[in-house]
Amino acid sequence: MAEKSELHLIKANIESLIGKKVRVTANKGRKKSTVKEGFLEEAYPNVFVVKLHNEFNSTRKVSFNYTDVLTKAVELQECDEI
Q: The domain spanning residue 59 has which CATH number?
């Protein structure tokens, strides 16, 4: 049951980042990964939502599972705002 306690820690850490700018690194398989910056918008019981901005001034919302962070398919880092 160590995984369950780790999942609760991950969820608590992500909930503390709500409203802050984050850098999302998503593993897309076969040594491919994407890095995007956005704001952590919401944290629900099973997923969290990140609002991403791109170079074309359009926004997009992407959701991830907490297990994605546990399995290291997704990494979140808080960005320092300048």
A: 2.30.30.100
Q: Is 48 exposed, middle or buried (0-12, 13-18, 19+ CB in 10 A)?
A: buried
Please give the residue range of the domain that contains residue 9: 2-78
What amino acid occupies position 60?
R
**Residue 1 confidence class, pLDDT cut points 50, 70, 90:** very low
Closest to 75 in 3D by CA, of 25, 34, 38, 27: 25
Q: pLDDT tens for residues 33-64?
A: 999 999 999 999 999 999 998 777 788 999 99
Separation between Cα atoms, residue 74 and residue 82, nearest integer Å: 25
